[in-house]
Amino acid sequence: MASCPLAAAEQRIGEGGLNLLPASSQQNRLSLKITATVSGTPAGTVTVSDTRTADASGLLAVRLGVDEDSPQSLEISEGSRVALTDMTFHFTYRFLIFNIDVGTLQTSGLGGEVFTPEPPASVGTGGVFDAEDHAFRIDRGNGRLESSFIDGDAEIDFSEMPLEGRGSGQGTVTLVRLGETAEGIMYRVRLALPVSMDQTEILDGNTVRIEASGNLRAEGTILVPPAPGSGDDFESWAEQVRPGGVAFDELAASGLPFGVLWALGVEPGGTLEPMSLQVSGDQETAAATLDLPEGGNRHPVLVEVSSDLGEWRNATEAELPGIGTNPLPPGATGVLTISLGPDARFVRLRVEEP
Fold first, then answer.
1. Which end of the chain is more exposed for a tag (fewer CB within 10 A), N or C?
2. What one-character DSSP code corresponds to residue 234?
């Protein structure tokens, strides 16, 4: 399937880095088979082969066209590098009742790039795409071939003899919406790209065939900018709260600034007043709580605590059970709980104005 141009008034382009997941039998483990025809042995010309596996690690830089939470196009762009663990191939053949050793090939520092030759490539229903629209190239590292059937040891520089392959079959890309900020919508991206290779080279007069296959899987986040006129920036939100708008640091009746309410994800047409911190418990269990909106917060919210209202500090992860991170990331939902104590008698929420 050929790549297609973006029809993109309906698409917004998000960018981000996806890390290859830990290698296992199902993912990010490349199987390489080397088959060589060797002449001059006691049995004449023989064919030898060996198969080894290498774990893949690295980072894929992607650009995704997104429309209504669905991927529409995919580009694996420059800077997407993959490293492979070292391998040792052993080549033998059977002669009469003997196993005859032909030699070994030791690889070191293998690596390469994954890319989209004709970007952007289309993505179909359900995030399924033609893996052949994408490619990979091993263009880094060395191989050392030791054999009694060649004139001295052979050194292979893969920057001078790159190995190239394409995607194979169908790949998938899925999106999970994490939340929305003033800068756009944050998505978690999961990418699966099956790849294969079949290349033949001539080394010291011997024919060598290199076959490879594997399934690259990566995960990470991208930020998709808001659509023009989406109305979720603070200015648009403030205009819906009150004709003429409200100021970012202006206090609502709840005591929280309007900017904090916007960042927390409160809808402008909803009831703003119940959105306030509630304190409960005794000296041993004192805590402040806040029910976050079901849709999650739009913008990072920093939780600060103080012992005397003079100096403020960021609340620690231990003081935020249930959320466990500070500032609160976009999309946080549920109940925000802040543990109080001698060093944290007061609490406030702070938001940087975008």
1. N
2. H
